Amino acid sequence: MTISINAAFDGGNIRVVAIDGDRIDLEIARDHLSDFFQWFSFRVAAAAGRTLTFRIVNAGQSAYPFGWPGYKVRASTDRVAWRMTETRYLDGVLEWNWTADTQLAWFAYFAPYTMEMHDALVTRTAAQPGVTHRELGVSLDGQAIDAFTIGTGVKQVWLYGRQHPGESMTEWWMEGALERLTDATDPITAALLDKATFHVVPNMNPDGTRRGHLRTNAAGVNLNREWHAPSAERSPEVLCVRNAMDATGVHVAMDIHGDEAIPANFIAGYEGIPSWTEDHGAKFYEFGRRLAAHTPDFQTEKGYEKSSAGNANLSMSTNQVAERFGALSMTLEMPFKDHDPNPDPEFGWSPERSKQLAHAMLETLADMIDRV
Known about the structure:
By secondary structure, this protein is α+β, with helices and mostly antiparallel strands. It folds into 2 domains: about 5-110, Immunoglobulin-like; about 115-370, Aminopeptidase. It has helices spanning about 115-125, 170-180, 185-195, 205-210, 235-250, 280-295, 315-325, 350-370, and strands at about 5, 15-20, 25, 40-45, 50-55, 75, 85, 85-90, 95-100, 105-110, 130-140, 145-150, 155-160, 195-200, 250-260, 265-270, 330-335. The termini are far apart. Its cofactor is Zn(2+). It comes from Sphingomonas longa.
């Protein structure tokens, strides 16, 4: 039977360049109206009994080519378990071999979290006691921007993710956070919800998610560069969330992301905002120290360079929210590779570990909530 490659599904992205025997040359499609690309997700059919070589020939022109060295493609035969497979990057080409013992195999940049999965998460979360669902607005393609309110406390906590849709680990984190926040049997959760009200937006970029984008919405806009001046024409997703924040105020904000290059979990803060004070910044640093002491899946040594005084980019949500509300605001970055200080040679950084990190961050916040 002839091998076939297909990415015409929710969140799919790949193009066939050529199939020559057992060698398959592919390229990743750019985000619509944008030059960003790196996310891929596709399936191969009629592969059983063959050893195939896959080559993504435009990997060197991707948004973050420095992220490919040391990266391993995720592969699955059941779309549940996504294991790492040995991957090579040489001369701008990403390449891996696959010996197939099933009719179908699936490959992705990271374990996918599709819009079908998002809708299932929203439906089951909305059915939990003590949860209020709101549709804050709609995307450019008309998809809902779903949000949940959970808790009765005076501290206003915002959790939001997937501004960059190709960072699918972010919605796995959100699933873990929502499961923990709706666990009526957990005493840590109960005490936290007495002190805080949570507002959770599990996917801020549904259009990019469905389209298989790396970083942008349906208009080719990077939502995490819109927070200073969001508009209905370019970034309604940010506009509706920021308006809702204005209505509640924000004491704590966690913006959940993935990083292509750094093989570790870390948080980025709001150094360089105009209103920066040492006392304000101390809360951010304390959270990081406490989280690193709480779980081996977090560290504080690796991360982004800090902005110098007065030079924070206020178009980014963490900086804008810290400046606008005086909030303890942070960007969590999870790896496409693995958390090298505590590695997993089979799965690397994974959906389950993303969910567990959400639990650890909520537990850390519970210990600090009286101080924010």
